[in-house]
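User:
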Amino acid sequence: MVNLRSIFGAFIFCNLVGMKNYRLFYWMLPLALLAVIQLAAAGRRQDALEAVLAALKTGNAPNLVLRFEETVELTLPDLTGVSSKSQSQSQLTKFFAANPVAAFELKHKGNSPSGSYAIGTLKTANMNFRVNVFLRGKGGKELVRELRIQTMD
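Assistant: Predicted structure:
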């Protein structure tokens, strides 16, 4: 006579083990999705920073201001303060007109908990400037919150 208890017991045991694997899968699925979202956000951070650096390399104030927050802390050799996007664009246009960009040399870029940043040297026909750019995540994208262009000592 066949012992049905041992056959069905093994079947039930295998299903319970299988259910544990599915539970593990359902716990891991949200973590995997979270990791993918974080990687995508990091990619967007780098895209925003690269767009800002490209605008600095060409001295293109309108393209640079596209990545600004509504108000930005702007530091230029003759000006320091919080400016709106439109004010920043006119101030940067004047700056780039007076100091045509020859090259931009990136010294360092990175990420912090609050956003991305870059440090570099803006080489112009007149003199060299130290540039610090700070971006922060806002509304699903990174925008410039502070731009410093200072004379080098």
